Here is the input.
Amino acid sequence: MLTLLRQRRSIRKFTEKKIEAEKVDQLCEAILRAPTSRNFQPCEFVFVDEPGLLQKLATAKAHGTAFLQSATLAIVIAADPQKSDVWVEDCSIAAFTVQLAAEELGLKSCWAQLRLRPHKGEASASEYVRKLVDLPDGFEAPMVIGIGYPDEEKAGHSRESLPDVKIHRNSYRAN
Here is the structure.
């Protein structure tokens, strides 16, 4: 797993190559295996590969979702907040689980925050995406993950670039 973390980078440019059905199936399995608090499983996942819908997802926010227009797959991560008080955390765990699975499969990804972000006018990005993929009323769509074959190369962050000062042993003030 550390190897995947060392090489993983957010990629925002993807080739047009479609992701093989077997790999999509593996991404489905991976995201369903993500842990949830008390096993309440509040998350739902909408896998989007229709080009027109990907183009619309790319407009969910003024900044930060345009990369979805070149992705060949997007996963809208959604939840029913009535099922769990920690639905945001559960969605986040699912998002990163599928990003690591994508990395292992030779794919790249990027996360786009939707929760608490505006779309246009009075609509939120989450509400825009909720309506776009036909989620039930009351559901939230806090994030979307773009996935595909990379059309840009980025090396992983070097060990030396990591902020070791953020690690504390036994107490925050003990350093």
